[in-house]
């Protein structure tokens, strides 16, 4: 059967980037398209977005909308570092694995990655690379980057975040949070965005949007003194300054100016929990990591995964180990999950 590219009922589990745009976000884009607005961020939508972000993260918080997540991470980290600075991160971090060297090639910084069994950093893991200050032969570790929720779908508790920021700050380092899925993390923990970031001592974060229902765009949110001063220059230098910024801001405003970020993330998490529970009850497949947000990581025979992939899109996580990743989105339905589980059971039975 040939599937039309316009058939929105066909959903896979490859990535939350595969999902469409939430209708409320599309409506916001349409409304923003009326009339003229001042360019380069001096528009009413960006101004209102700034007030909304301050409401979430505190009066000192400032947002800088950009085109994409890689650009957001690179610029955020650049704002924390001199040219000789280095960033400590988990080996599985998106900046280390999935951004094609952009932090190092475009950002001019050294990444110091450490192994992590669950995608999370700890003060002890940070200390593996937190050394060598004053040694001119070593890139200076001056920042820590963590991801919430992590690339393995796990979550930092508020206590764990505070332990990391306290430790990093005591060593003279600042902390960046990659918040591509920050909404999923906050929804799962039952806390506010500011409680999880400002309240735990994070210095700067990338505020995700595309993985939670907007068409394009992310935000860089500065939470401490220093980064905001250089941000507008770095954004332009890194080709992330939108002339018609209102169209990024209007989307983020639709998402974070209401409870849309929370309801969409909560739904995606619930669908992942439904999938995870069904997988646990299925013989022949095992979970690799605990399902704490909107991602399910499982181990099953590669032959089964390949046949199942003919019916549903998803990616290998570690093919050598027979591990795959299944992601749920704001538009994943219970029927999507149940159909997928039924197909998984069929392929396992045929193996």
From TrEMBL:
Residues 13-297 form the Aromatic amino acid beta-eliminating lyase/threonine aldolase domain. Coiled coil: none annotated. It holds the Pfam family Beta_elim_lyase. Gene3D superfamilies: Aspartate Aminotransferase, domain 1 (3.90.1150.10), Type I PLP-dependent aspartate aminotransferase-like (Major domain) (3.40.640.10). Its cofactor is pyridoxal 5'-phosphate. The keyword Lyase applies. GO terms for molecular function: threonine aldolase activity. Its EC number is 4.1.2.5. It comes from the Bacteria. Keywords: Lyase, Pyridoxal phosphate. InterPro entries: ArAA_b-elim_lyase/Thr_aldolase, PyrdxlP-dep_Trfase, PyrdxlP-dep_Trfase_major, PyrdxlP-dep_Trfase_small. SUPFAM superfamilies: PLP-dependent transferases (SSF53383). Belongs to the threonine aldolase family. This is Threonine aldolase. It comes from Paeniglutamicibacter sulfureus.
């Amino acid at each position: 059967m040939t599937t039309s590219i316009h058939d929105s009922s066909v959903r896979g589990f490859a990535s939350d980037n595969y999902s469409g745009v939430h209708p409320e976000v599309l409506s916001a884009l349409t409304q923003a398209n009326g009339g003229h607005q001042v360019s380069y961020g001096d528009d009413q939508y960006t101004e209102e977005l700034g007030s909304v972000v301050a409401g979430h993260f505190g009066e000192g918080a400032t947002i800088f909308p950009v085109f994409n997540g890689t650009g957001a991470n690179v610029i955020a980290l650049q704002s924390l570092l001199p040219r000789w600075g280095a960033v400590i991160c988990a080996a599985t971090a998106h900046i280390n694995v999935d951004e094609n060297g952009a932090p190092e090639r475009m950002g001019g910084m050294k990444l110091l990655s450490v192994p992590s069994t669950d995608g999370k950093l700890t003060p002890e893991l940070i200390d593996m690379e937190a050394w060598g200050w004053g040694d001119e032969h070593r890139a200076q570790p001056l920042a820590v980057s963590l991801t919430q929720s992590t690339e393995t779908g796990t979550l930092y508790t508020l206590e764990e975040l505070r332990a990391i920021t306290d430790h990093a700050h005591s060593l003279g380092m600042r902390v960046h949070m990659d918040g591509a899925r920050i909404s999923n993390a906050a929804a799962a923990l039952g806390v506010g965005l500011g409680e999880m970031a400002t309240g735990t001592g994070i210095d700067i974060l990338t505020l995700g949007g595309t993985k939670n229902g907007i068409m394009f765009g992310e935000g860089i949110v500065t939470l401490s003194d220093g980064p905001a001063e250089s941000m507008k220059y770095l954004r332009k230098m890194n080709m992330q300054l939108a002339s018609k910024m209102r169209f990024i801001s209007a989307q983020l405003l639709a998402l974070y100016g209401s409870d849309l970020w929370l309801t969409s993330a909560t739904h995606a998490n619930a669908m992942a929990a439904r999938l995870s529970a069904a997988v646990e009850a299925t013989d022949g497949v095992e979970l690799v990591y605990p399902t704490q947000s909107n991602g399910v990581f499982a181990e099953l025979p590669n032959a089964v995964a390949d046949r199942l992939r003919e019916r549903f899109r998803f990616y290998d996580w570690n093919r050598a180990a027979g591990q795959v990743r299944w992601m749920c989105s704001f538009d994943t339905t219970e029927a999507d999950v149940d159909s997928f589980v039924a197909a998984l059971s069929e392929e396992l039975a045929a193996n």
